[in-house]
User: Fold protein adenylyltransferase from Roseburia inulinivorans.
Amino acid sequence: MQTDPFKEYLKQQEPDKKYKGYAWQTAIGLQAVDGLKPSEYLVDAAIQNIEGKITLDEVKNLLDSYYEEKPQKNHDRTEEADKVSIRIAKILSEHAFSFTPNEYISIHRKLFTGIYDHAGKIRDYNITKKEWVLNGATVIYGSASELRKTLEYDFMKEKHYSYKGLSMDEIIHHLAVFVANLWQIHIFGEGNTRTTAVFFIKYLRTLGFDATNDIFAENAWYFRNALVRANYNDLKHEIHETTEYLELFLRNLLLDEKNLLQNRLMHVDYKEMLVREPKIEYKTSEANIENRKVNIQLEKVNIGMFGEKISGISKKTIQHMEQLCDSFDKNEIFGRSRVEEVTGLKNTRASLFLKELLERNIIQKVTGHGKGKYTFFIKE
Assistant:
């Protein structure tokens, strides 16, 4: 199968082809959240649909005949991937939508009828799932006895929430919290992530977001892992639930940003929260021109002020530190918004940058000046 046979359609000037290409690319890409891969046969049929040669119903009929004529014993769930892909493409091509728990349940029923016996049914048992990103640990999912009430409560809260007057950063954060909470309930035995993704895309449209790009298709596994990290705490090991990864995903999806989305950065054992360049050894040999350049950079951030705290720090982080030192007095109090203004870092990246400086005791928190305020940590 080609790496991405639908990408060219996203660049089409013809709205119909572009929209169909997006729907199919997303539908097929979402199968990755459960480790599934559609067949070449489906991809070929999907391309015929995008080109206007056959309808979605004809794609479905072709696929039904294909599997009737070619029954597979102990197959690798390719049939599931194919059939669910068609159903997702169909739902994403429809404009009808209502923001209700019943709509959410209905999407699960439409996707998995004939595939799961529990399609469209709320589970009546508790579940756990081993997660790679958690080193085999599980998220604490909703209790079986409270699933319907919890679902209705989350919908009621969101329905009465006002986005008026919010900045885009605040909107992104709220959307990340909403979808993370919706997914955590996990009201179905299987198929929760695909159902949540389809429902969320439809909901985003009602909020005025187009989102007809390749972010969901190419980062479906990242999306699921980000949902996991947004719902997992292990305070003993200083691991806290966080929506920062979901927010990066949503910024790419909704704002067309180019944040790096890498699954390994979310792993609970991944210690380096920033994407680093290769570490540079700081030597004093004047014969080494590269090291002399690095030493010049170190002098700019005042090596006498920070000493060994900057040993092993990335070149990019040093550049941002240099910008802070050039802009702030050593005793100045600052917050994330000022850091964003000075360095050009986006919301989440600025938070990660401050977190690293805090962990290295380069900056320290200050009280009495509002939440999230810092100053340089300097021993006189």
